[in-house]
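quick one before i forget lol
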Amino acid sequence: MLDVLVIGAGPYGLAAAKAARDKGLETRVLGRHMAFWREHMPAGMFLRSGPDWHLDPAYELTLERFLELRGETPDPLPIDLFLAYTDWFTEQAGITVEDERVLALRPGFEAELESGETIRARQVIAAPGIAHFAHTPPGWAGGDAVHACDAVDFADYAGANVLIVGGRQSAYEWAALLGEHGAARIDVVHRHPAPRFDRVSWRFVDPLIDETLAHDGWWRNLAQSARAAIARQFWEVGRLTLEHWLTPRLQTAPVHVHADAHVIARTRLSDGTAIDPDRIVFATGYKAQLANVPYLNGLGIDTRDGFPVLDAHMQTSVPGLYIPGFAATQDFGPFFGFVKGAPAAAELIARNIS
């Protein structure tokens, strides 16, 4: 019987696999290597994070080390270079990612694979891709209206009028990229004030990660006022302030911003603007709904508001089943929805796994 089965080969799955292997546990990793990043993020995209965000819980195979070996100091960091880092990390860590899809995970951790193989494991780390949780307003999905994670081939948008609903980094970066790929007109609409564009620092997350590692259950034991203050920091840095390098790109694109507004109907915005979009892109984020992960259904995992209920080591109500990443943010804080939290999540799991 296998010691540890890791389902998912994104940042959280790869970090957890490294932690399990470092403990000498026989580990298999199933999934497509960095699939969400390769298939649902567009070429030409840049990351908001710096070189200090990496995957290794041992802090050896870091992005900074990778960039030093290449002699590169990019600012901002292109997605292609980060993907090259994940390739290097996986190779250096001795991790083999098997391109296999899990159809079902049965009680006792018997995994049925699409290839027909069955794997039994003592413990499972499930790191489902965030694409499972893409949030689109009810009644709008389908046809020419898609979530931003499904709008990555911008050649299809040349000459089109595009409505983007949302006001975070992805909304504005998609607008810039669409303009660079020949969209005729781009309307960006969101309910909050217009963001400013400036250099931002995510260093405030570092002590939050440290506290999480130092004190079991730190986030869930915080006073509501403290949680609200942290949420406000994420709002100010992540939504009200966007990256400075977008400014010149947006200025040369046919972008029209509608702040403090919303969509009334397909042809009208609440600020009175008449629109006639050929395509609609929802940059409306992600919402946890564990039921959207097919292979986890049927295990009887306790949930709350769509999130799994986790203990201090990201273990679910099913002993031996761990779920790190975006699905852990309710019990561990919003920083575990970012790559920054991957090494810490892997360390938390490794402390408990045997």
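fyi The mean pLDDT is 96.
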